[in-house]
Amino acid sequence: MIALTLALRNLWKNRRRSLATLLAIAVGFAAINLFAGYVRDVYQGLRAAAIHGEGLGHLTIAKRGFFEGGSLNPAHFIFNKAEMDRLRAIIVSEPGVVLATPQLSASGLVSNGKLSTIFIADGEDPEAAGRLRANPLRSAEPAQAGLDPSRPAAGLVSQDLAGMLGAASGSSLTVMTTTLAGQTNALDLDVIGTWDTGTAASNDKFLRLPLAYVQQLLDTDGASRVVVLLDESLDADRMRAALGAKLGAAGFDVDMRTWVERSNFYRQVKNLFDLIFLLLFSIVFIVVLMSIVNTLSMSVMERVREIGTLRALGMRKGGVVRLFAVEGGVLGAFGCLFGAAFTGVTAAAVNAAHIQYTPPSSSNPVPLTVAVVSGTLAGSLLVLSLVAMLAACWPARRAARVEIVDALGHV
User: Fold this and answer.
1) I need a labelling partner for 102 at 20 to 30 A (CA). Which of 9, 203, 223, 368 fits?
2) Hey, is 161 helix, strand or coil?
3) Helix, strand, or coil here: 177?
4) Mean pLDDT within 231-249
5) Considering only CA atoms, which of 107, 143, 145 is closest in space to residue 126?
6) Contact 282, 73 (CB under 8 A)
7) Rounded to whole angstroms, how far apart are CA atoms 55 and 227?
8) Rounded-to-integer distance, Cα 53 and Cα 50, Å
9) Total number of domains in the chain
10) How far is residue 398 CA from its own chain's centroid?
């Protein structure tokens, strides 16, 4: 208690220097937490875009080897109708599974009669697709067109591809590909509408088609994979282990991938932001360390006689170190508290401004939002306060080594 009282008095006595250090800590603390809040919102948006926007779900289940060689020999990895029905029955019996829907992909040429270009298509169950692609983060936005269960030969065209082909709702296209047996097949496609894939790289080549339509194109009654949507409170890795045991016992040799494993874009962005956050935290760490060392080094030089007096009155070297450590800790804690207030005000101002920007590789603008993450606030407050205490120990140990006689005679 005495150390805390002396620390507060000394900080007040040197308030100009203390204020400069407080500001350095507060700005660094706010920078860490504002960036962490922005990154948290980016991760949530990318997660929702992968699970719902891309239709990856939380888990994708396919025959073993599909993810490595499915594009080279698709016929070898098809679940037939009987296998698919039995597989889905086992999956949906697991508590926490919201949806298990088959999907089948195709690629080839799509034409408006005058112009042809390549396409990549996902065949989906029209009824399940509406539930799978309902993005909870964009529930307030107008719903985009979806597949119509009553129109088995009608699909959706990505916006840039529709622009290239001049396709709009009510128009007709011709889709051509090869069946699983290698024969050429073509079908007419009615366009229900267009949709934005959210990624510039895919917005000029994707189609969303009814599963039955793609099965007819490829001349099969099966599907290549089952996409599983889980309750948001469940962990995908744990569910993978539970379903793997069940399906293995039922005789299925399958491979399961989580949405993180299937979304290369999410992993790349996360790795980049994690690295940036580490660099930012390292810079703030060094700034706080040097600010505390500089402030308390100056304080030691000005208080040599005071330290000598305290030593003469019986304070041990450890007591001197503890005094300066408490002073550094108080300086760090107050700086973090000011930084927390600044973080909250700045985050509220940014969110209220409704700023939008277009990220790299994105096909549409997204809102710039910053969350206040309580866990990061508490963690950075604790870490920076400890850093401040440790930074104070070096000048404090130097002061404690001064002989009492020399300290009392210091001018």
Assistant:
1) 203
2) helix
3) strand
4) 92
5) 145
6) no
7) 8
8) 6
9) 2
10) 45
Query: CA-CA distance, 130 to 140, in Å (whole number)?
Result: 16
Distance, in Å, from the CA atom of 247 to the CA atom of 86, rounded to the nearest integer, reads 10
* Alpha carbon of residue 386 to chain centroid: 28
160 and 229 together in one domain? yes
Distance in angstroms (rounded) separating the CA atoms of residues 356 and 353: 9
Can you tell me the distance from the alpha carbon of 87 to that of 79, in angstroms, rounded to the nearest whole number? 9
Please report which residue ranges of 303-316 form alpha helices under DSSP H: 304-312
Between strands 254-258 and 225-230, the pairing is unpaired
Tens of pLDDT, residue by residue over 376-410, are 889 888 888 888 787 777 777 776 676 666 656 55
Tens of pLDDT, residue by residue over 82-128, are 999 999 999 999 999 999 999 999 999 999 988 999 999 999 999 88
End position of a domain, from candidates 262, 279, 296: 262
The tokens of 16 are what?
């100009």
Q: 3-state class of 5 per DSSP?
A: helix
Total-model pTM: 0.79
SS (H, E, C) 231-291: CCCCCHHHHHHHHHHHHHHCCCCEEEEEHHHHCHHHHHHHHHHHHHHHHHHHHHHHHHHHH
List the domain range (segments joined by +) for residue 316.
2-49+266-408
Tens-place pLDDT, residues 215-235 = 999 999 999 999 999 998 889
What's the pLDDT score for residue 406?
60
Task: Tell me the pLDDT tens digit for each residue of 66-94.
Answer: 998 887 888 889 999 999 999 999 999 99
- Written as six digits, the tokens of 352 are 């209220």
Domain end point (choices 202, 235, 262): 262
CA 62-63-67 angle, 5° bins: 65
- Cα dihedral sign, 328-388-395-286: negative
Cα(176)–Cα(110) distance, integer angstroms? 6
Answer yes or no: do 99 and 217 share one domain. Answer: yes
Give all strands (DSSP E) within 28-161, no chain letters: 59-63, 97-111, 116-124, 154-158
Nearest to 87 by CA among 259, 250, 257, 212: 250
356 near 365, Cβ under 8 Å? yes
Rounded-to-integer distance, Cα 371 and Cα 136, Å: 17
Cα-based angle 238, 265, 267 (whole degrees, multiple of 5): 45
198: left (phi > 0), else alpha (psi -120 to 50), else beta?
left
